[in-house]
Here is the input.
Amino acid sequence: MADGIFLYLSGMFARLFGRRRKEQSPYDHLPVPETASWALLGADMHSHFLPGIDDGAKTTEDSLALLRTMAEMGYKTIITTPHVFIDYYPNTRETITNALTTMQQLVKEHNIDIELRAAAEYYIDDYFMQLIDREPLLTIQKNEVLVEFSMMIEPPNLAEAIFKLKTSGYKPIIAHPERYVFFHRDLGRYQELKDRGCYLQLNMLSIAGYYGQHIKAVAEKLLSMGMYDYCGSDAHHEKHLSVLRAMACSRDYHKITGYPFLNSRL
Ligand SMILES: [Fe+2]
Here is the structure.
């Protein structure tokens, strides 16, 4: 009798856990792609491919190699986003547009089939607050501005910066929200950002586990909550592209392509 109850309970738990596992992996029935292609996304809107002006591509050769790999992975449009961070990468409209013009010419000369554009990834600090007033910001498209901030300590002026961007006519896109550890204790903070009028941009590498399992878990949770608007590679170098390529041939591929990101509008 006791054995019967045990078997009954075991079966019940197996069914329960079986169902739970299925719910957590809705892409299990889809085949893992054999070729590494992100063509379905079409556009990437966060990367560091302009040479020598931030911590991404170092030389024009680096830059060309990265862009060629992106084209091979099926991307048609790249909106690359050099850091504008006065303490480390004091880029301006001029440094970015000059580097962009050089690379657009080289992309053409080397027959790389990709449309290269540029915006910026602005770091929220006092300099940025003044910059909003001083000159038009570089946008991903229309009025959309990609911003980042400290990953360890929440900037005291975050709400003020978002308000200032909004009242200046911009739509903030918060880069890699899953990487800001101070938001992890309260996922309601992400809804708060959206309520304040921000878009949220997933780093694809977060889903691949590149920044650790905890960041991956938060990114997957935010995906399941439908919190993201854009996805981006945030690629700086070949190692990042290798991870992207491997990811395109894994179950993670479907987590990205199964989500209604706005990238196709770029
Ligand atoms: Fe970035």
About this structure: The longest strand covers residues 144-148. Residues 46, 48, 121, 175, 234 surround fe (ii) ion (CB under 6 Å). Residues 45-265 form a domain with the TIM Barrel fold (CATH 3.20.20.140). The chain has ten helices and nine strands.
